[in-house]
């Protein structure tokens, strides 16, 4: 048999070609991710007011966090916001995905319509519009007046103010819904046909077939939405500015205020690192719980 000639290096191609091809990524990652990441950690160990040179103070900023009532209040609000928003958004997204998975006429239009809020949600003009919906003479109170209900002070009550922000983020369920919908369409129809032969109803099929098949996708959406909720900033900042009584004041807003209102850059970076470590811990716990559940099942 004729021996094939080895093909080691084409003419004109350097052994460093691969390195040069990924150089734009390396430079971009170093400048815009790695450098800020390391700088933030270093600044968190300093007293830095952005007008004079940083002064190294060790872990003093982190110790101060333990007694900072503003930080503790913001942490409670952020956890409460996340604990309510994430389950509600996942449930709503899954229910809408189930509806849009039905083979109905014109279902493509509804899939597009339900996804649009996710595109518009990042737009500040939509957040401002949402804010005016719940003012004293906003559309919501006007509709309540037509129904004979007295106007509600949505922004005067801590619970309703937080609920408005949660409602906005639930309304932006499109991206989560699309992930669920894609997973639903990948479930073999033979499973459902076999369940009907065995006399299994729709509810039983949902809990016995659909949910088990979606467990990986549910976990992915849970992780993504948890990370997003714990970093919330735009909506409470634009809609309520953390009020009333700091009931909508999140950790993200605290970082912003410390950095750009009080010019306390060292403390702001320490808070951001605590948030980063907390998010990492939460995601690690979610992975651990999921791995244990899979092992037990």
Structure description:
The chain is an all-alpha fold. Helices cover 70% and strands 1% of the residues. Helix 3 (69-100) crosses helix 8 (174-185), helix 4 packs antiparallel against helix 8 and helix 13 runs antiparallel to helix 14. The termini are far apart. The model has no long low-confidence stretch (mean pLDDT 88).
Search tags:
globular; 14 helices; 297 residues; two-stranded antiparallel sheet
What is the topology?
Elements (H helix, E strand, L loop, with lengths): L16 H27 L2 E2 L7 E2 L3 H6 L3 H32 L6 H14 L3 H10 L5 H8 L11 H14 L2 H12 L3 H9 L4 H12 L1 H16 L3 H6 L11 H11 L3 H32 L1
Antiparallel strand pairs: 1-2
Helix pairs in contact: 3-7, 3-8, 3-11, 4-8, 8-11, 11-14, 13-14
Q: Can you tell me the overall shape?
A: globular
Helix content: over 70%
Secondary-structure element pattern, one letter each: HEEHHHHHHHHHHHHH
**What's the β-strand tally?**
2
Instruction: Report the structural category.
Output: mainly alpha
Q: Strands across the major sheet, in which order? A: 1-2
Radius of gyration, in Å, reads 25 Å
| Overall average residue pLDDT | 88
Largest sheet: 2 strands, antiparallel
Secondary structure tally, helices: 14
Beta-strand share of residues: under 5%
**Alpha-carbon distance between the termini?**
54 Å
Low-confidence stretches: none
